[in-house]
Amino acid sequence: MKTIALVAGGPKENLPVLTDYHHEGVIWVGIDRGTLYIQESGLPLTFAFGDFDSITNKERNELTKAFTNLSIFSAEKDKTDTELALEWAVQQSHELIQIFGATGGRIDHMLGNIQLLFKTIKYDSKIEIIDRQNHITLFTPGTYTIKKHKEWKYISFIPISHEVKGITLEGFKYPLNNCHISIGSTLCISNELIHEQGTFSFHDGIILMIRSRD
């Protein structure tokens, strides 16, 4: 699968093992300090975005010498480095965009990064935010099949539009049939698959699916 992996500069302890997500065809893109995370993991860095205000002058000089495809922005701008990188990524028409280093640390950055998923609705790429414990994906109305995964045991569905209508969960420990849930509801937190695969569907609204480890 053609994949772009964006690595932002969130706390290193929140990162999964990046090499677990490497395969042929992945384009690794650094965002500010995330550029160093890619290099430290021994992965091939293709592009880098940011004002690089979260790294030292020495680290920045070393990056500039070692790598020519740095897009350096002013620290005073109307968009975050992650938003600028994601805007570039969705224009590349890849099947999957994975974002790492976007959670933990400052909650304003984390919430802003999750809300960036809204901007991707009109694009064909599947976009995921992944950290050591969570896997976040935005869904628009439709029917979806998901497979059981022993490491990602818990599955939550969180409405992020005013209302999500007609949500149906099949193959889950706590099934639902044509249920309406409003933003702020915790009804669909911490569910589990009881079969090797299950389906969820809804006909109106926008929802986040979060798969979590123990």
TrEMBL record:
InterPro entries: Thi_PPkinase, Thiamin_PyroPKinase_B1-bd, TPK, TPK_B1-bd_sf, TPK_catalytic, TPK_catalytic_sf. The keyword Kinase applies. Pfam families: TPK_B1_binding (PF04265), TPK_catalytic (PF04263). Residues 142-208 form the Thiamin pyrophosphokinase thiamin-binding domain. Keywords: ATP-binding, Kinase, Nucleotide-binding, Transferase. CDD domains: TPK (cd07995). NCBIfam families: thi_PPkinase (TIGR01378). It comes from Metabacillus litoralis. This is Thiamine diphosphokinase. SUPFAM superfamilies: Thiamin pyrophosphokinase, catalytic domain, Thiamin pyrophosphokinase, substrate-binding domain. One of its GO terms (molecular function) is thiamine diphosphokinase activity. GO terms for biological process: thiamine diphosphate biosynthetic process; thiamine metabolic process. Its EC number is 2.7.6.2.
